[in-house]
Design brief:
By secondary structure, the chain is an alpha+beta fold. The protein is built from eight helices and 28 strands. The protein has helices spanning 369-376, 413-421, 439-447, 455-465, 476-493, 513-523, 527-535, 547-568, and strands at residues 11-15, 25-32, 36-41, 53-57, 66-73, 84-94, 97-102, 105-111, 119-123, 133-140, 143-148, 160-164, 173-180, 191-201, 204-209, 212-218, 263-272, 290-292, 299-307, 316-317, 322-329, 343-348, 354-358, 361-365, 378-387, 393-403, 544-545, 593-594. The strands form four sheets. An eight-stranded antiparallel beta barrel has the order 1-2-3-4-5-6-7-8. An eight-stranded antiparallel beta barrel has the order 9-10-11-12-13-14-15-16.
Length: 595
């Protein structure tokens, strides 16, 4: 590969001299816009927090050549709109060393995951009978050291417990040392024994001494002093824990604040076969060293907070918000040992990954995948993690689709208006204030009763999303019209749980059009009400379906659509409804669908 290729630089990096008094910070380099480099903070500071861009190039990097770029800065930490970009120069000195400088600022960035591990950690199973102990991982003499926060008589607090002997690389074992002491009363009895350190992901480490292995988990916030179960963020102000108790997910105590700008969004998922690129951290290990999840072996649902973007469409997940969910089918999985399936809970990390706890299993998705999931209204999550009870390593790939809310009870708007009119009845509502309303006022109220979906609202969403740009002969109104035909089939077959019919999952010019319109509709607050209006109170659910099952369902849907079109005298729109019998679909170009 050419030394000028920018594809050589993505991965974890860190800098100890670029951020001045803030010290060592970790970054994730990715590609964007024709091979240019985007550097995003994994650990941040008050000026530019984690999850935001720290610098970017406007040209592909070339070893030994300075290229222009921009540094993201903010001088007033209290000004939420005070961010600006300052021109800079970026020079790759090697594949593992990048120099960035501008007026009054400059420093070096080195490849390596050491920086992502700094902070507070804990282990429930490494210290034997001493139980859970907490550590603080810091950089000393260019190497990672874990210093005990809570200790035991053998190695007390403020003593280092283990240290890496070289740079950290995810998916590779690194030589390490563990400090031990057999006699707690001997102040000179400390000595070291060799160990192996393995980085599973940014929040999970495994340390092996001889035949003993322990798992270490990163604590989301450095100020945690107590450990507790993950809690559900229900947005009601009640956090599920006692006043003053520290919550593992938010790092705060007391009641949560709620804002009307964000909303809870539900998602349904199922496991799929991992691609060869999905778990780079485990590629150096033999297959028997870690456990995957077979396709469709784990299915479930989770909720997470989302914040709409400035355009109202490109939503992102709310950092540090909680995740809650359930697993509906996990009886074939080893960690599921109880009679009742475990609940799923976790949090959104600043770098856009999702951190899950499921029974004794702790998993973390790849950086940025959570934000991409919200932006695209579906996609994949690649999880790696470990079982804190057995120390077994796990790697899952999930196919995730946006989901409708589950509504327990629904009353039609007409019935609601009739209930209002009952207040005007001489026998039932003589003392009701409604009885004093004139017929003109009641007619105005009735005009606001929503009797059917307002499709113009969905057309505006389709136009803003630009779905029709894939084919200039299409318009938002045409796309919504074809989507309505799909919903009509769902209602006709009473396929509320989406067990029979699937939308066209064959792309037209790169877009699965009806499915994309469905995703947009589900993301709207009116979706559940619109479904209920079309179906007399039912909600049409959205579930992930894989491979041949999805294709079989679409063949059935396509046959029903063709029969419906013939009966109505409509032409078949092959842009939105590709003929499944004319398109060859294989696992290489189809890895799943939505029903």
């Amino acid at each position: 590969m050419s030394r000028f290729s920018s594809t050589l630089y993505p991965g974890y990096w860190h800098s100890s001299d670029f951020y001045g008094p803030h010290g060592l910070e970790s970054q994730l380099i990715t590609l964007y816009d024709a091979g240019c480099i985007l550097c995003t903070k994994i650990t941040g500071d008050r000026n530019v927090p984690a999850g935001l861009m720290t610098w970017r190039s406007t040209m592909p990097l070339r070893i030994g050549t300075a290229v222009p770029g921009f540094v993201h800065v903010r001088h007033d930490v209290e000004d939420s709109k005070g961010f600006s970009e300052v021109p800079c120069w970026i020079k790759a000195l090697s594949l593992d060393h990048i120099c960035v400088w501008s007026t009054g600022i400059g420093g070096n960035f080195h490849r390596g995951a050491d920086g992502i591990l700094l902070g507070n950690w804990y282990s429930m199973n490494f210290y034997g009978p001493h139980g859970m102990e907490q550590q603080r991982i810091e950089m000393q003499e260019g190497r990672l050291h874990a210093v005990k926060i809570t200790g035991d008589p053998h190695v007390p607090p403020d003593h280092w417990t283990w240290r890496a002997m070289g740079p950290i690389k995810p998916g590779q074992h690194v030589e390490a040392q563990v400090q031990v002491r057999e006699n707690p009363t001997d102040p000179h009895g400390f000595h070291v024994i060799p160990a192996k350190l393995f980085v599973v992901n940014a929040a999970t480490l495994q340390l092996t001494c001889g035949s003993h292995t322990g798992t270490f988990l990163g604590i989301p916030k450095p100020e945690f002093a107590a450990m507790g179960a993950f809690t559900r963020d229900d947005g009601t102000g009640s956090s599920g824990y006692a006043q003053g108790q520290v919550d593992l997910l938010t790092g705060s105590s007391g009641k949560r604040r709620c804002t009307s700008k964000w909303k809870h969004q539900a998602w349904n998922f199922t496991t799929v076969s991992p691609g060869t690129h999905a778990f780079e951290a485990f590629q150096a290990l033999p297959q028997r060293a870690w456990h995957g999840a077979p396709p469709n072996s784990i299915n479930g649902r989770f909720e997470v907070r989302m914040m709409p973007g400035s355009d109202g469409l490109a939503s992102t997940l709310v950092p540090d918000s909680c995740i809650s969910g359930t697993v509906r089918n996990g009886d074939s999985i080893a960690w599921c040992t109880s009679d009742t399936l475990p609940t799923l809970d976790g949090r959104v990390t600043p770098d856009g990954s999702l951190m899950w706890r499921l029974g004794t299993l702790v998993l973390r998705s790849a950086p940025g995948q959570g934000h991409r999931l919200a932006r695209d209204r579906g996609g994949y999550l690649d999880f790696t993690g470990a079982d804190t009870q057995t120390n077994s390593l796990h790697a899952w790939r999930l196919y995730v689709v946006i989901a409708a809310d589950e509504v327990d009870q629904w009353t039609s708007p007409q019935d609601q208006f009739l209930a209002l009119l009952m207040g005007t009845h001489t026998r039932l509502g003589a003392n009701s204030g409604v009885s004093h309303l004139g017929s003109g006022v009641l007619k105005i109220i009735q005009s606001f009763v929503k009797r059917a979906p307002i499709w113009a609202d969905l057309e505006r969403e389709v136009e803003q999303a630009g779905l029709h740009f894939c084919d200039r002969s299409l318009s938002p109104a045409q796309l919504v019209h074809q989507y309505r035909a799909f919903l009509a089939l769902k209602v006709e077959r009473e396929d509320w749980m989406s067990l029979e019919l699937s939308p066209p999952m064959i792309a037209h010019n790169g877009k699965r059009l009806i499915d994309e319109v469905w995703h947009l509709h589900i993301a709207m607050r009116s979706y559940e009400e619109d479904c209920a209006l079309l179906s007399s109170g039912h909600i049409i659910m959205h579930q992930p379906v894989l491979l041949e099952q999805a294709l079989d369902r679409y063949r059935r849907t396509y046959a029903l659509y063709c029969a419906r079109s013939a009966a109505r005298g409509d032409e078949i729109d092959h842009r939105c409804w590709p003929n499944p019998h004319l398109h060859v679909t294989t696992p290489s170009n189809w890895d799943g669908g939505c029903c």
